[in-house]
From TrEMBL:
Low complexity biased stretches: 691-728
Keywords: Kinase, Membrane, Phosphoprotein, Transferase, Transmembrane, Transmembrane helix, Two-component regulatory system
This protein's name: histidine kinase
The keyword Membrane appears for this protein: yes
Record-annotated membrane-spanning stretches: 20-40, 316-337
Stretches with biased composition (Polar residues): 803-813
Any matching Pfam family: HATPase_c
First-level EC class: transferase
Length: 943
């Protein structure tokens, strides 16, 4: 057990946060989202209230505009027909002054106010034109129509922005009534045409023959009647005002017919009566339009009051809901944090104090079952309570196991050794299979497919990062060390498929801050990928660099594609400058969105321009400006002061493997490309095992270089004299020297430094070592053992734990004692421990199940001596409070020998022979599985 505190976690490492901070973060996210959504809802309601209030202030000018347009129509038609009065002109001038005053309303849109003032000026110009003698009637009519059209457009600009169904209906009602009112002016101008035709020299003759043009009057009256039919939808059935308007239309038609008939007999047209009918209709229309405008204003004011009330109501609801959510979150967090803290305290107490004290008591007590422990102070039945009971169960089981440690000491050591060797064997087999799959692929098409799958996986990974960014969300970055700009660019190039087409010259000095490296690599990869896909496959994409005025770096990525139209490029640059606004085009242009979002996040500037101005394929050049704040000088990256030496990585031993041909000294190097990235080539044959060598460090990096065969086990005695071919582990890196060099793992790099056992291609009969006995036979020792297969007479071999009982007791000693000195490497010969373990693997343990529970051996005397030694009190160091340990102080005297020794030497199993048999067996199993897998793949491919 170690009392050392764990290293202090980084602030950005979420896994290292305390429980209180994690719960706070979990609760803060939904509360923040609720506050944002509630605030947006309240802000929307307040915005609608302000909008309706402003619309209510603007709608006031609409009735005066409608009245002014009608008055100007009366003045124009009266001037044309010769029935204009001073009162009509005075009314028009008064309304112009009122409209001009309303246009000064600060709540009115400046553009609408300016347009209204211009229309009023046109109306004054029209009045001045009437003062000039000999003005044509057609000119007056055209100027009046333009005057009315301008006012209609301005009223529509005022009413249209109001998004309310009732206001929209009232706006349609106002527009239709106004259009019907304008038909009165058209009828008046038609009567002027009739009057002029009748006043001519042959007017009476035309009246008698019916050649006087009355089509304009009839058409205008028909249009008015149609608009009245439309207005029926907005008024009750049989409305008196609409009925009066229809009656006036019929009366005017009757007066015209009667007047033409009288004119044929020498009478006079009833112009004054027609004018009175038109003025009466105008007054009715003014009443309708004024009522519609007032209804619009009233509706807008009602909506403004409703939206203000809704905003206040929503604000109260949001605040109340957030307050309730915070209270509930506080209660839940306390109910969660309290039991967890008690559980943590109980678990740490049991691990650091209770359990070690109980073990010490067990060692000094004769009855370990009398010990008890205090359970964790969590008594609920939910998951935390269940976890507390599990901790109690673990505590109890630990005490129970500690009570049996005296009887199971040797068995536990053997079990640990066996499990460790089996696990090591499985790991070595797994490494061999992985290396075969990785380095023994010789089909170029399959290797190319593997490369394509690799690039496809990189694109899929990048696409995932993109969707995040789309949600607003930020990915955690743990890289803090500055990275050279050349490495950043090469990392971006390595993420695209056609990286061979990318050309990169000398990179500028400096490094990029480690906190932004991942995002900058992502941004550059998106831009390079887009350039490669938008340009012909036989062209290249180039990188260029320059120092910016502010001390930053300007990167440019240029291609020779078909280019982008100027308008589209302007729109793309605007979207890049906006910082990634989510819209309907985001899914279609995900790369553009990601680039703009990453650029905005780190203060980068990204712009597009044409590579060539006059070429057929102008191409596109992307400029990326990295500010000076993100650039770190090379000097800042150099380490200063004393440096800690990095220890060599632990070597890994491997089982003997079949021999492989040694590599030639003129082994071809990896081909280089112009972008500085290595190209992987399929291995033709695994290299031969090399002798163990020291772990070296690759130049350019702080990573240890793995030498082939450095992790092998010691060679056997019989193979110590056989020389092994030595191979060099080289690293080929293309590109500039700024690129860090990484170690290259060679095939069969884990081959042990041992004499390989050749595996015959065909089954052959080979002599096998004597079959190992089981433990029951080894313990009896009643029968004399036959001589060894190698014919050498050797002394009986004892288990190393049985020759040194201090090793068996070391497992249960205090863990804070200094570690023993490192053992010297074992000689080349095999060990009886391996032979004993192999016997356990190859024998059936069912034969020992029927053995009685109590047995006696020649070692009982030794155990009695050990028990007497264990009762000796242990001397404690008063300074540190820990027992003093003396090597060999608790060794059991004597040896464990068989009760009946006949004087005949025991048969010792040859570990080299057993190892060779196991190696041949393992190689045969591998070959069989590989052949079966190849046949299965062939059958599936035929299907």
């Amino acid at each position: 057990m170690s009392d050392d505190s764990p290293p202090r976690a980084k602030f950005w490492d979420i896994e290292g946060w305390g429980l209180r901070w994690k719960v706070t973060a979990v609760l803060a996210v939904p509360v923040t989202v609720a506050m944002v959504l509630g605030g947006l809802r309240v802000q929307g309601e307040l915005s609608n209230a302000v909008h309706f209030t402003e619309a209510a202030d603007q709608i006031v000018v609409v009735p005066d505009i409608v009245a002014l347009e009608a008055s100007m129509g009366t003045v124009t038609s009266g001037y044309a027909s010769g029935t204009l009065t001073k009162e009509d002109r005075a009314d028009a001038e008064s309304l112009m002054n009122d409209v001009s005053e309303q246009a000064r309303n600060p709540e009115l849109d400046p553009a609408v106010a300016s347009s209204i003032n211009q229309t009023v000026s046109d109306g004054r110009a029209l009045l001045n034109l009437m003062d000039s003698p000999g003005v044509a009637t057609d000119l007056l009519a055209e100027r009046q129509r333009a005057f009315a059209a301008d006012f209609i457009r301005e009223v529509d600009d005022i009413v249209r922005p109001i998004e309310d169904s009732e206001v929209v209906d009232k706006g349609y009602e106002l527009t239709n009534a106004w259009q019907a009112q304008r038909r009165l002016f058209e009828q008046a101008m038609g009567l002027v045409i009739v009057k002029d035709a009748y006043a001519g020299p042959d007017g009476r003759e035309k009246a008698r023959t019916g050649d006087i043009p009355t089509s304009a009057v009839v058409a205008a009256a028909g249009a008015e009647s149609s608009l009245l039919d439309v207005l029926d939808r907005y008024y009750p059935k049989g409305d008196e005002r609409l009925q009066a308007l229809r009656n006036n239309i019929n009366d005017r038609n009757a007066l015209i017919d009667q007047g033409l008939a009288d004119a044929a007999r020498g009478g006079v047209l009833p112009i004054l009566q027609l004018r009175s009918s038109l003025i009466a209709s105008r007054d009715v229309y003014q009443e309708l339009t004024s009522a519609a405008a007032k209804d619009i204003a009233a509706t807008v004011q009602i909506r403004a009051a409703e939206t203000r009330s809704a905003a206040l109501r929503d604000t109260a609801i949001v605040l109340g809901t957030l307050l309730a959510a915070l209270v509930l979150a506080l209660l839940v967090s306390r109910s969660l944090i309290g039991p967890i803290r008690r559980l943590r305290y109980g678990a740490l107490k049991a691990a650091r104090r209770d359990l070690p004290d109980a073990i010490e008591q067990i060692k000094a007590s004769d009855d370990p079952r009398a010990l008890s422990f205090e359970p964790v102070a969590v008594h609920s039945s939910e998951e935390i309570g269940q976890l507390a009971r599990a901790v109690d169960d673990i505590h109890g089981q630990a005490l129970k196991l500690a009570g049996e440690q005296a009887q199971l000491r040797l068995q536990i050591n053997d079990m640990f050794e066996t499990l460790a060797r089996r696990s090591k064997s499985l790991v070595d087999q797994q490494l061999g299979l992985i290396e075969n799959l990785e380095f023994e692929e010789k089909d170029p098409k399959r290797l190319e497919s593997l490369f394509r799958l690799d690039h496809l996986a990189a694109r899929m990974r990048r696409n995932g990062e993109n969707l995040l960014i789309l949600a607003g969300t930020r990915v955690r970055r743990s890289q803090a060390a500055p990275i050279p700009l050349g490495d950043v660019l090469r990392a971006a190039i390595s993420e695209v498929e056609d990286y061979q087409r990318v050309q990169m010259g000398a990179t500028p000095e400096g490094a990029l801050s480690g906190t932004v490296v991942t995002d900058v690599v992502h941004l550059l990869a998106e831009l390079v990928d887009n350039s490669l896909r938008a340009s012909p496959p036989d062209t290249v994409v180039t990188f260029s660099f320059a120092r910016a005025v502010d001390g930053g770096v300007l990167l440019e990525i240029a291609d020779r594609g078909i280019g982008i139209p100027a308008d589209d490029m302007r729109a793309v640059n605007e979207r890049l400058a906006s910082g990634g606004e989510v819209g309907p085009e985001t899914a279609r242009h995900m790369g553009l969105f990601v680039v703009s979002r990453l650029a905005k996040r780190h203060g980068l500037t990204v712009r597009l321009r044409s590579t060539f101005d006059t070429a057929r394929n102008p191409g596109v050049t992307v400029s990326i400006h990295i500010p000076n704040a993100l650039i770190v000088s090379q000097a800042a990256r150099q380490d200063t002061g004393p440096q800690r030496k990095i220890p060599a990585s632990p070597v890994r031993t491997a089982i003997p493997a079949p021999a492989a041909p040694a590599p030639r000294k003129d082994e071809p190097q990896l081909p280089a490309t112009r972008n500085g990235l290595p190209t992987r080539t399929p291995s033709t044959a695994p290299p031969a095992p090399s002798p163990a060598s020291a772990v070296t460090t690759a130049s350019g990096t702080s990573l240890p270089r793995r030498q082939p065969g450095a992790s092998g086990i010691a060679a056997g005695a019989g193979s110590a004299a056989a020389p092994a071919a030595q191979s060099q582990d080289t690293v080929n890196v293309r590109g500039s020297g700024a690129m860090p060099k990484l170690p290259v793992r060679r095939p069969q790099a884990t081959t042990p430094d041992a004499a390989p056992v050749p595996a015959p291609s065909q089954p052959q009969h080979a002599p096998q070592a004597p079959r190992s006995e089981n433990r029951a036979e080894a313990r009896t020792a009643e029968q004399p053992a036959p001589p060894s297969s190698n014919g050498d007479d050797q002394a009986p071999v004892r288990h190393r734990y049985r020759t040194n009982s201090a090793k068996t007791a070391s497992f249960f000693q205090s863990r804070i004692d200094p570690p023993p000195a490192e053992a010297a490497p074992r000689p080349g010969g095999g060990t009886p421990i391996f032979s004993d373990m192999v016997s356990d693997w190859l024998t059936d343990p069912t034969g020992a199940e029927g053995a009685p529970g109590v047995w006696h051996s020649a070692g009982d005397a030794g155990w009695s001596a050990a028990e007497r030694i264990s009762e000796t009190p242990v001397e404690v160091d008063p300074e540190i409070g820990l027992p003093k340990r003396r090597p060999g102080d608790r060794l059991v005297p004597g040896t464990v020998e068989g009760a009946h020794n006949t004087g005949t030497l025991r048969r010792v199993r040859d570990p080299e022979t057993i190892r060779a048999n196991l190696s041949r067996h393992q190689q045969g199993v591998r070959n069989g599985r590989a052949t079966r897998l190849a046949e299965r793949n062939s059958i599936e491919g035929d299907r």
